[in-house]
């Protein structure tokens, strides 16, 4: 059975959920769910729950064989736990079980997004750094909004609440992450009339839904003690954080996140220049809209090092978050 969970967000940095025509005049549920799935896939890969053989054309996804699934349920019964076990025994990756695959419906859905149209702002706009092709997206959503999720009750405490906690601390929503967009603060979570304190959920208790999957704490796949930018470019399978970059002293409170984005992109631009002799590696790590020149079959590469803005004791701080370990998937399955 699914339960209705209302999550209230506020933007730390502008939110962009624009469509294929770059129109950004509403908050698109598909963009939010896509972000949740992406980061859950990152978590599953970096914590060892999924590996390269599970990776298929850019996702951890596999079609459910309907006949085999029905035959398995005839043997094991029709309980939620039996269904999960049958899917895992069929080799369905956990992200596909949680977020859906062909012949299997997602356990997490969005019922409604409540937002204020006046919160779509035309500023910031224009080039972020002179002589660089980074532009602010406009209009962008800035302010509070709420999302009503429908979530399978069996995964609320074991997966959904920990995933919300992860997104609040580390994740990005929507698009334009390469310029630091999409960092959201979770203000409130309600299950019916009850408030939920998600801060206590820093462990994915996967074995509550299946004894075939081990529990994972955040520290199992996050390294928050990085002190050198060069470490962010390495391909070890962890989310890596370089923190504690503050806005300049001249920054005004209302422009704090914009000034932080500018400062972080200046740093990122200088680090990117260190790879000028290796265009392919530069594009893979720092992003490009073009396929790397030595492999025309690769999809366009998004940046693996993201400007990361977070709130600490009521003050915005910045840094960088690296998912360069995803580059190990280049040799994954493409069946």
Give the radius of gyration: 20 Å
Give the % helix.
25-40%
Uncertain segments are 296-300
- The number of helical segments is 8
Percent strand equals: 15-25%
**What is the H-and-E element order?**
EHEEHHHEEEEHEEEEEHEHHEE
Overall number of domains = 1
Q: Which structural category fits the helices and strands?
A: alpha+beta
Query: Numbering strands along the chain, what is their spatial order in the largest sheet?
Result: 4-7-1-8-9
| Measured distance between first and last alpha carbons | 34 Å
Number of strands: 15
Give the biggest sheet: 5 strands, antiparallel
Mean pLDDT: 90
Shape: globular
Domain CRISPR type III-associated protein: 8-185
Pfam family, one: RAMPs
InterPro entries: CRISPR-assoc_prot_TM1795, RAMP_III_fam
Protein name: Type III-B CRISPR module RAMP protein Cmr1
Write the SSE topology:
Layout: E1 2-11, H1 29-46, E2 55-56, E3 59-60, H2 66-76, H3 80-89, H4 94-99, E4 108-114, E5 120-121, E6 140-141, E7 144-152, H5 156-169, E8 184-191, E9 194-195, E10 203-204, E11 216-217, E12 222-226, H6 229-232, E13 239-245, H7 256-273, H8 279-286, E14 305-312, E15 315-322
Report on this structure:
This protein has one domain. A hairpin with a 2-residue loop joins strand 8 and strand 9. It is 27% helix and 23% strand. It has eight helices and 15 strands. It has helices spanning 29-46, 66-76, 80-89, 94-99, 156-169, 229-232, 256-273, 279-286, and strands spanning 2-11, 55-56, 59-60, 108-114, 120-121, 140-141, 144-152, 184-191, 194-195, 203-204, 216-217, 222-226, 239-245, 305-312, 315-322. The strands form five sheets. It has a five-stranded antiparallel beta sheet, with helices on one face. The chain is an alpha+beta fold and 335 residues long. Helix 2 packs across helix 3 (80-89).
